[in-house]
Design a protein that fits this description.
This protein is an alpha/beta fold and 365 residues long. The protein contains 11 helices and 10 strands. It is 48% helix and 26% strand.
Length: 365
Amino acid sequence: MMSSPTPDRGSGAFAVSIRGDVPSFLFGTRMLSMNPGIRPLLASLTLLLVAGCASTTKIQVQRAPEIDLPGVRSLQVEPISTTGGLDLDQISTGGGLLGVALDVAVNVGTNVAASRQDGKWSDWSTADLRGALVRNGTFEVRETKDADAILKGSCEYDVRDVPETIEEKVDGKVVSSYKIERTATARVRFEVVAPDGKVLGAGNVEQARKVKVEEADAETARDRIPDWEDLVHKAIADANEKVVSRIAPYYVTEERTFAKAGSKSIEKGNKLAAKGDWDGAATLWRQALEGNSQDRSSGLFNLAIRDESRGDLDSALAKYEASKAAKSQKGIEISLQRVRSRIQERERLRAAAALRDSSATRPNP
């Protein structure tokens, strides 16, 4: 069964490697089985990962956009002009000058076919950007020209294949395979313009999606490579989400590591919090506040993480400071700096919201 591509959320790229019917990560396991000396290291790493899972959690954090749009409550999205080009791995038409000419003709024909779809892509890009704004919820998206500002833009995409013939020796025999790496890149240029033509903000974003396949022969690899249109859809959608995050508040997922101490209350609380039982964890962490300075510091540190997860940043800052005063924890300075920065972002967001609210009550000229 063919493995399905999975996104790499951290990098914004989309990558998977397929070799026959086996995902590429299994090749690492196969190689480890050939080298018994690596097994103890693998076991140690596995134990370390398992231990680490119990002392970390992920929380949603609101971030302020790079571009402030004071007083803007509603946006009209103008049609996003979308164009693109393809450089795909095609079936070879033979060698010599005639073969080269035919190969060029195949690529030209592919790009002509793609260009005929530019109108479809423009409609889709525009609708997707509007949808991303609606999901964000900061601005009212209007179809009419009575919006507070207009979002304009253009999108360029390209899809490029990088084919490679691989030869390796297996049991003294040369075995060949064919690999294709396909990358779809979307570049969006945008600007937000007031009704009087004043540019309120502008920028460029770029996002890419990638897939890889490796098969015994070129024909099979070309047949199994995911469709280029699907990759373009994903790349443009990623770019549109990035545009929205440049002009509106957005959420990101961040990891927090709980403090550890000798107290059983801290350990049990950490495990409950890692499972999402924040109330049960908080009860145990508060019990640890009656212990020694290490337990008190760890309990306060972890209660601060709970406050962060709830968006209570002032309380989180106070608890981080108290944790440091009781006994300095690893990462306490980074945590203090992070929360102070988030409080500054929160004040920016509140000021922007106040301006939007005041403009909502202001009579139209």
